[in-house]
Amino acid sequence: MHPLITETLRGRRAAFALEKEYIELFESLPNANVFFSPEWVYSWLLSLGRKYEVCFITCRDEGRLVGVWPFFEHRIPVIGTSLLPVGAQAADLFDPVAREDAMAPMVEALCRLCQEYAFAWMPLLSLQFADHVLQPAIKSGTARHFLRKRTERFLIELERFKNFEDFMQMVFGPKTRQSLRRKSRRLAEKGEVRFQSLETPEAISPWITKAMELEKVSWKGEEGVGTFKRATHRAFYHLLMENLAARGRLRLSILTLDDELAAYEIGILGKDNYCMHGTAFDPALASFSPGRLLMLHVLEKCISEKRRIYDFLQNEQEFKRQMSTHASSFWDWIVFPRSLRGGLLRVFVRTLHNWSEWKRQRAKKMDDAKRVAVENMQSPAIDSE
After folding, report:
1. 303 and 157 in contact (C-beta within 8 Å)?
2. Any idea what DSSP says for residue 353?
3. pLDDT in tens, 233-263
């Protein structure tokens, strides 16, 4: 049995030379990380990533590519140069694209590579990767590191439901179902309502700018937290969405009222799963819940397609908790060099994390106390299902 060989490829020329093999590797894997698909990575290189030096960790088995983990260099004043995963400004998951047996060697390669940098940071890793790959590497003492839970991850196991009606019956109580039906009827009274699932570059392209404009006037645009919040991100997403659609990895679902965009949902398609990457709705129609109605339309289609998972990805919003069938989590992993500077940075990051966690827990206790006080003053509305 030949050992797996890891290698670090530096520079854009080497990254683009790898593209054909990268595509072949991604297509060969059963459940590769869609946020490191070749379309995602190379769209980033052509737009957001143009100003950065890139550094790809690869793994080969007798010359054949079996793993890729793409990073870029990011300079931070005073601290130095760090390594971040490609797409860190936009993607939702940073597990490497690799055969299962190649993941541990790639983690070891990253730890060695990190000796040249201030730190390497993977901000969103799956619980499975953290448990099965990172924990054994950490126990081996390969690197100085900091691993922490970042946020909840809510998912709907679509396999549990016989059909969409079964989903509605099991997830929502009668009052909620009645409310949604009423809002749907009221919205239809305002004009012609259409739900569309767009999956080709030609169908998607005319709606991308409209989606960007809708997000700008939505609450996400007001708070500056939307998918398209920056001009550079808008150029990246325009290219990305068309490239993903060309490979059958994107679904733009839209709800229109008299042909005007009322809500949209961007879905990233895996082989058997659906990742909800971004949504927005017209605030003028908020009383009709167009975003929720569109999401239910998307879920109905996913169930009819026999998809296994609908993944809400990051952010702990209450509606995700209510609709999900189970929760997982995303993890941060920060690797520091074995040096005095690396040790000091690790202490600083851990202290900052502990302080942030204390503030979060304190805010949560205050919110819980306010909620209990309100509940004690009111009769709660009970929805038994």
Report:
1. no
2. H
3. 899 999 999 999 999 999 999 999 999 999 9
Spatial separation of the C-alpha atoms in residues 6 and 106, rounded to whole Å: 7
pLDDT at 380: 43
3-state helix, strand, coil in the chain (%, to 5): 50, 25, 25
Map out the domains of the chain as residue ranges: 5-142, 156-327
Q: With contact defined as beta carbons under 8 Å apart, do 144 and 337 qualify? A: yes
CATH number for 156-327 (one of 3.40.630.30, 1.20.1440.230, 1.10.760.10, 1.10.150.120): it is: 3.40.630.30
Q: Which token pair is 191?
A: 């004009």
Query: Is there a contact between 47 and 236 (Cβ–Cβ < 8 Å)?
Result: yes
Which residue intervals of 278-339 are DSSP H helices?
290-304, 318-323
pLDDT, tens digit (0-9, with 9 covering 90-100), for 104-131: 999 999 999 999 999 999 999 999 999 9
Q: Kindly state which CATH superfamily the domain 5-142 is placed in.
A: Gcn5-related N-acetyltransferase (GNAT) (3.40.630.30)
